[in-house]
Amino acid sequence: MQGVRIIMNKFACGVDLGGTKLRIGIVNSDGNVIENIQIPTHNHRGPETVINNINDNITDLLKKTNIKQKDLEGIGICVPGFFNSEMGKIFSLTNLPGWEGIPIVDIIEKKFHMPVKLANDAHMAAYGEYLYGAGKGTKNFVYITISTGIGGGIIIEGKPYYGTNHGAAEFGHIVIDINGEKCNCGNYGCFEAMASGTAIAKHGERIKSLSENKPVKAEHVFEAAKGGNRLAIDIIDKEALYLGIGLCNILAAYNPEMIAIGGGVSNQWDILYPKIMRIIKNRALKHNAKACKIVKSRLKEDAGIIGAAASLFF
Predict the structure, then answer these.
(1) Predicted model pTM
(2) Among 9, 45, 242, 268, which is least packed by CB within 10 angstroms?
(3) SS3 at position 291
């Protein structure tokens, strides 16, 4: 890969701090996850407890893998929100209240005495997917994750683009319907408000007995659509429409050679892909669409920890 210096036979730790799940893994410089763990975040117990859990599980993983602390290049932490990269402090985290001003980098550096990097979770998932997954070998690559919300990352001429203050690729807040539903960000008609897994589940609440009085999830709507439920089919068709429009905007703005789609909604790829491609065929800027492949991501849930760890290698 041009312009990339690979450190062979080295290891780093990747930490993916999510709203409900905390994933930690030891990754080698070939992008292989040597060992990983997934536990509930338990954010209600406060940032101090969560950080202590991160430290304890990194220690446990090192023991389990027989990798010495001195053999780690460092620890990469990806978070769902905004932060000060120079100070290593959190500004705000989506779905994780109470983290404002927490100096997470300083705390973990003092524990392990090694470099610690802080990054956006979708940016790191994109970086991992670019280096080791679907985007390997490309130069201009876009990754989009569609699950509870919608986020993403951008690679331009082989380099990650983070924006002025790590706020780039907030695809979820591209407005695709000016008369659309209110988004958590306060705006109306955002990509995330219209096409995320949360949006699908919200519309699915109109289907009675969809999940036997349990909270409706996007997967329930897809299953109902597969079973021929007309309302569920209409919801999925609208989902594909909004996804297609969002992708048309990204194609026009960035002209990538590939867009990889990850996140929980991508598990329904066989249903969504042909519907999305019909929208792109009819609506996208043809010059740009012709040059771009739209694919499913390969690294799945490991993308974030792989990308976060890889940020220590290059």
Answers:
(1) 0.91
(2) 9
(3) coil
